[in-house]
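FAQ
Q: What does a multi-component entry look like?
A: The components come first, one per line:
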Amino acid sequence: MKPYTELTRKELLDLQKELQAEYQSEKDKGLKLDISRGKPSKAQLDLSMPMLDVINSSSDMTTENGTDVRNYGLLDGIPEAKKLMGDMMDADPSQVIVWGNSSLNIMYDCVARSVLFGVMGSTPWSKLDKVKFLCPVPGYDRHFGVTEQFGIEMINVPVLADGPDMDMVEEYVNNDPAVKGIWCVPVYANPTGSVYSEETVKRMAALKPAAKDFRIYWDNAYCVHHLFDEEEKQAKVLNILEECERAGNPDMVYQFCSTSKVTFAGAGIAAMSSSPANIADIKSKIQWSTIGPDKINQLRHVRFFKDADGLREHMKKHAAIVRPKFEEVLGTLDRELSELEIAQWSHPMGGYFVSFDAMEGCAKKIVEKCKEAGLVLTGAGAAFPYGKDPKDSNIRIAPTMPPMEELKEAMKLFVTCVKLVTVEKLLEA
Amino acid sequence: MKPYTELTRKELLDLQKELQAEYQSEKDKGLKLDISRGKPSKAQLDLSMPMLDVINSSSDMTTENGTDVRNYGLLDGIPEAKKLMGDMMDADPSQVIVWGNSSLNIMYDCVARSVLFGVMGSTPWSKLDKVKFLCPVPGYDRHFGVTEQFGIEMINVPVLADGPDMDMVEEYVNNDPAVKGIWCVPVYANPTGSVYSEETVKRMAALKPAAKDFRIYWDNAYCVHHLFDEEEKQAKVLNILEECERAGNPDMVYQFCSTSKVTFAGAGIAAMSSSPANIADIKSKIQWSTIGPDKINQLRHVRFFKDADGLREHMKKHAAIVRPKFEEVLGTLDRELSELEIAQWSHPMGGYFVSFDAMEGCAKKIVEKCKEAGLVLTGAGAAFPYGKDPKDSNIRIAPTMPPMEELKEAMKLFVTCVKLVTVEKLLEA
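Then the predicted structure of the entire assembly, as tokens:
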């Protein structure tokens, strides 16, 4: 196979006809496929079913500090869950708050509190003319949804192989007092799979923000979500809490994580960790909004995993299910597209996504073509603030949810659409 | 026993000595008692332990609309939980959102959203100079905590036997556009136990608010929490959603309820109901903050109760545990204090509290004296905005949590303190 750019017009026209036929035959199958969201599959969810037995009608319902988990209380979670989630994030339990089932909700509330009440005594953002967040792109659409809802101006920062472009981050954060935050997914970033390098973390921790209420929103969603069991293939990222402290910025970071992709996406537990001063600030504010989280589900998680090692062991079972799906996606892309030189894609070692970059101006059309033939992809541009991919090039592939047979079908259709749209693009030129 | 006000100074001095001795002997016991919070007792929590068996590793995890409760999705709850909680509140499932474990959290978020984004397109309250809420008093301290945190001005409205003083409510709501809300507990109000009469509900529904974004915060926390099984002793309150619709104010009310005092205070499910327009407005905003609530716990509740009748049947078991405690409290107060004419108290038919009004200027001292001898009561004034009881008279008694023996001990100490503080007050006069 020759690169498409080296084909003559005649060759392109022939190819177009061939691909159109291929596409039509796919379309005729009446497919109903979905690789749009990072959802665990049924097989993955089944892995945690035994957790539903560890708390039953004859269980001891008391925490290690003597609290009855069934009753009100413990605003920041049960001690043993603070330990478990702290270990997952490399944070001391005293720096941890464990909440309900959604880390997105925790992040949202962190932004909402800053807008309403300010951060550790600073001016509430609602009283400011302008608030900005740095948004590494491509990134997580729901992060951008949060900042957009609050009317926060979002600034694109490219994600490189080892994390966000730190020159740009430093330029903005250290000079513009309107920049109050940055969204970071340091491990197996959504959707690029990038892993922050030692240098990236150190430079992040050493920022000298113009705004004293600037915070790094460190969404460690995939910290234990390795695709491979071999340690050398697993991402190791420096401890951001420690690095910030070392750099004299102890209060600069909020870290988040959850078990949504460890146990149940709809019924896991979520947590944040930060400096003692931030945690005290947050607890002083959340005490008005709730009497405490669902502590029974926290206890259920702790009793199931015993400790963070138990949790990490459990993740190997996920990897065994998820890895072949990534291999299928990457295998298909490598085999079908690499010689054509019409696209690039990530080769992640963990997480939930493959980030695919088509030729400029092709992403929307590819997604549209796939949809017409029954394959739902995340909307083109979704991984960018305001849903606008400046190059109209990026598509996020989420391989985990469909069964393998459907995934194969989906990838076959996907590469056909990529080829067809690209050929048509080249013919237009 | 003669009324204290008819005693001579000499008689009061003798009585003081006697009561001081009694108090000292109570104090010497080194008691550690708590009737401060409306928390269910261990025996009540035990009633719901079988619920922990209905979802286990071999359960079908699919809702009636085919959703896997373990995965992401269903922003507004599973259909069967919307039915259950809707029936509990007399609302159609289409008017219901079911969330996590805390109705306080739902109410808080309703206020927060109004401050941040406005109500159905109105100006966000954060952009207004002044926002006011009407606060029926005595009332629920955590309601007032929410409004206080947002800097909302709180206006006291007396709670009469059949609900808030509606003349005053109409006067404020219909004339002052800064009045954006009123906190209502229509059934077995916290702490008075009052039940809103038909007339109160009808007048409430027929308000003609000066502010189009005025909402009634209808906290139906105790709608199924009857102390007596006989239907004629159970509060029946008109359906506020229907009454508002009938009065041409379909969008004027947000209703809330939860199973916190039905199943587990720390791990129940909570819900709200409102008009289709309000529900649509709220859903359009919460979609940014979460992918959905803990649906497994919702399914657990539905499978346990089957339906609202099952839930109401379950409440009879609570009543059997709680009723003797209320009888103990009221029996002691009636026996020890009624002839002395130094206090008044509610005789609730449900809910979690007895509201006690001491002689003016005595509440703080009584609470203080109880505390010195080892009995924790809710802080005097807690049932009023800003913690300020203008008469320093009201004390909230929460009888449910302690075992009966401790409750008896607590009430004995309480009446001793009431008498002693009152005698000292009369001697000062």
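Q: Is there any commentary attached?
A: Sometimes. For this entry: The first helix of chain A runs from residue 9 to 28.
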